[in-house]
Amino acid sequence: MTIATTTEAYDPIRYEAAFIVAEAWRELGLEVNVQPTEFSTLLGRFYDQQDFDATIIGWSGRVDRLDPQFFLGTLDSRQSEPGGNNPGGYHNPEYDELFTRQSQEFDVEARQELVQQMQELYVPDAPVIVLFYRDEVVAYNNAAFEGMEAMAGEGLYSEWGPMQARPLTDRQTLRIGGPQEPDNLNPLASTSVWGWKWMRLYYDRLIRLSPDVEPINWMAASVEAVDDTTIDVTLREGLTFHDGEPVTAEDVAFTFNYYKSQSYAYFDAYLDSLENVEATGDLTVRFNLSEPSASFANIALSQISILPEHLWADIENPGELTPDQIPNIGSGPFKYDAYSRGEIMSLAKNEDHFHADEIAVDGVEFVIYADMEGVFTGLQTGAIDMTAWRMEAGQIPLAEQQDDLTVVTVPDFGYYHMTFNTKREPFDDREVRRALTQAMDRERMVNVLLDGRGEVGHSIIAPVNAFWSAPFVEQFEYDMDAARAALEEAGYSWDGEGRLVK
After folding, report:
1. Residue 323: beta bridge partners?
2. Which pLDDT does position 417 carry in this prediction?
3. Helix, strand, coil fractions of the chain, as percent rounded to 5
4. DSSP secondary structure code for residue 374 in this structure
């Protein structure tokens, strides 16, 4: 079997974690190959092609994911088609039924009980193993900018960062450094956090989640729930796209209906309950849901980027656009400026935006490095002002010793995970998955690879998200003897050379 993971240069933690797992699985009598893969290629094989045995990858803890809807949806069998968020193909009808019920439950405590039930149900099946929750430890240049506030799960590189940063020198452009560029900048095709963290600066949403993770009206002047399946939204007056065209209710209705009609599974968990959207006036739209949704108003409305209908309406297959065909026109607080693949991306401040007076920078640049060593060197030398990605364990004390750098630590409710392809042997066997999980030394990963800056994972809802997390799920402690016993009980044995046989 093959364990796919990132390259060492991109993320040495995931890379080394794969070898820790492979070492133990070989002791169980398995032939294991670790396959380091360039990140964008890894994403394609995992989500779009679903061509893998087991993959170590991660979900970032974006603020919209504090609501459990997204992470729970990653195990919903209805999201297991190519491009969907359940590429491992986990299928449990009881889980799917509970997912639907919690989606429609408006009583918070009743929903909490359902969400915790779901975690207690799926964990013993071991389709996805949360390896660890890793602290976000990032840094910024305090001699160049102030006002840099970290957000839970996102660190400094959030959608609010460029809107909060205050220059302390004559240079007004905020420079961010990271080891990975977007998979693409197509709002109908990107499936990586690197794509969306950038795009949400120049595409706008009806609602934004505040730095305190409170929903605030943004493009929307008001959001009103008419009943359990009807939501009316009134837009702000005077909104315009970056090409000067006005933003209308027709654009909003078009956007949501367009997303709904495309085979773009990335947002399915948010839009599953949406029937259609209709413009009821120049600035008013009505969202018609097929069923009640507890999270739709705050989550779907805060994640779907509003597109200009006049540029997208004639594009029949948006997922097939080449980079030069993508209309990079939004209505957000920044405007798309340039993108030189492998080098730099840049945005300019949108002076016509309603929030422009609150923004002190004149633009944002994202400098692309080959690895975190390059990012850290750029931070130390002043080539960049902040890191977009968490620092490696050995870099943190060096940053803490440098007077002009401020180190920020926030807990992460995202996680690194090992996903089994349950459509392939032997991963279609629940008992094999359970045994392989017992043969994962996750404590070693946290203590050695993370230098203790994190904790072993047990559920797709992290303990820091305390209200929704289930505290008593099965733990799967590292125990090689128990793993061997479980395989033997499931009907497996070993040949004369110690190889596992069915």
Report:
1. none
2. 97
3. 30, 25, 45
4. H
